[in-house]
Specification:
By secondary structure, this protein is α/β, with parallel strands linked by helices. It is built from eight helices and seven strands; from the N terminus they run H-H-H-E-H-E-H-E-H-E-H-E-H-E-E. Helix 3 packs across helix 4 and helix 7 packs parallel to helix 8. The longest helix is centred in the last third of the chain and has 14 residues. It binds S-adenosylmethionine (SAM).
């Protein structure tokens, strides 16, 4: 319940940046990670971790020797994540600086990028910069996983994001809709040469 209240407060402070009124459900988090092959990853990056609904699941599936880096723009969420997940490197920063963040952490590229970002509500230039950073930060055989809200699939920013990504990944997997999530959402997993 505390997570839900903190998340809602974050939404009320910055609705476009947070993009949802509640953290992802466990069911959606598991769909997001279903094809992420976390066990074989050395470096896992999560963008827009919020209160850690997906971070928790990542830590359940990741190999203990892997480096997990979380990037969160909201200061209060970043503080909570730092306290809650001491085994994770939490960066209070924007995903727009992903390459710089990885360098600062002593990593070159990521095996898996997990996105919790609300693409439909972010300004298009921000989406464009983050997409470019993700593509430049993944290993050639890396994976990008995330989720989209059903009500936003026809949003122009989301469609532009999908087009851009489809051209860069050979394998695209979309999950069934998780109706129990608030709001209902589907997970995507992209892999192949990028
Ligand atoms: C829809 S919430 C998802 C939170 C969490 N991943 C979940 O599934 O419950 C989006 C999160 O992305 C963060 N965010 C938005 N823009 C960001 C950016 N440019 N860089 C890093 N985090 C960002 C917001 O602060 C918020 O915590």
């Amino acid at each position: 319940m505390r997570d839900h209240l903190q998340f809602l407060a974050g939404f009320l402070r910055k609705p476009r940046t947070v993009g949802a009124v509640a953290p992802s459900s466990g069911r959606l988090a598991r769909e997001v990670l279903r094809y992420s092959d976390l066990w074989h990853a050395d470096t896992v990056v999560e963008l827009g971790a919020g209160t850690g609904a997906i971070t928790r699941e990542i830590l359940d599936y990741v190999n203990p020797r892997a480096r997990v880096i979380v990037v969160e723009l909201d200061e209060r969420h970043a503080e909570l994540l730092t306290r809650r997940f001491p085994e994770v490197t939490v960066c209070h920063d924007s995903a727009e600086n992903l390459r710089r963040i990885l360098r600062r952490c002593g990593c070159r590229r990521a095996d898996v990028v997990v996105s919790g970002l609300p693409w439909a509500s972010l300004p298009p230039p921000v989406c464009e910069r983050i997409t470019a950073e993700i593509l430049a930060s993944l290993k050639p055989d890396g994976r990008l996983c995330g989720f989209g809200y059903v009500h936003a699939v026809w949003h122009p920013a989301v469609r532009a994001f999908h087009e851009r990504l489809r051209g860069n990944f050979a394998q695209v997997r979309i999950s069934p809709v998780v109706w129990g999530n608030l709001p209902p959402a589907f997970a995507y997993s992209l892999a192949g040469p990028c």
